[in-house]
Specification:
Layout (H helix, E strand, L loop, with lengths): L1 H56 L6 H16 L5 H22 L3 H5 L1 H36 L3 H7 L12 H4 L6 H5 L2
Helix pairs in contact: 1-2, 1-5, 2-3
Length: about 190
């Protein structure tokens, strides 16, 4: 009778261990898949940029430095090594800021602003930027889930045995954390 109890305990421990291991594999796969979603959206944005630049070029002759910066950042983003997520997001954040500048520049050119192709590209880029932001949130959420499993007892024992490593969160750049300064005087002048 004692050997049956021992066998049941061993079977339960094996099932528990396999379950923990499979949970780590699943969490790691979710992290990889969520990063893949960011990659897909970055590629989509990179594919839209040449059309946006060529559309804006004809109208915004005096804003060539902004257009050139967009193209340079796009090229820089495509040259980032695929495993360097922090650098990818740093360049992506800079590109997002430059695209916002390009959209602001478009306000100076009513003909460009009225151009249907430019409006459609702006809308697509805005939607893509929103998808990138959502994908970043999803990535950080899946990283949090994996990291909690790695740090929690008793799953941390399985994580250490199989060398599961914690992942880094995608960070928000410091300049985006600060709120813009607004005064009531600025509001009254409009």
């Amino acid at each position: 009778m004692a050997w049956i109890i021992a066998l049941v305990i061993v079977i339960l421990l094996v099932v528990w261990y396999v379950s923990l291991y499979n949970g780590f594999v699943q969490a790691r796969t979710h992290v990889q898949e969520s990063w893949s979603q960011i990659d897909v959206q970055l590629k989509r944005r990179n594919d839209l940029i040449p059309n946006l630049v060529s559309t804006a070029k004809g109208y915004a002759n005096y804003e060539q430095s902004t257009l050139q910066k967009v193209v340079e950042l796009r090229n820089q983003l495509t040259a980032v090594p695929s495993g360097d997520r922090q650098q990818t997001m740093a360049v992506s954040n800079e590109l997002s800021g430059t695209l916002r500048s390009l959209f602001a520049v478009a306000e100076k050119y009513p003909d460009l602003k009225a151009n249907e192709q430019f409006k459609q590209l702006m809308e697509e880029l805005t939607n893509t930027e929103n998808k990138i932001a959502y994908s970043r949130q999803l990535y950080n959420s899946t990283v949090a889930s994996l990291n909690m499993k790695i740090q929690s007892f008793p799953s941390n024992l399985v994580a250490n045995i199989h060398h599961f490593k914690m992942k880094e969160y995608l960070q928000v750049p410091e300049e985006e954390k600060t709120a813009p300064k607004v005064s009531f005087d600025d509001l009254n002048t409009k």
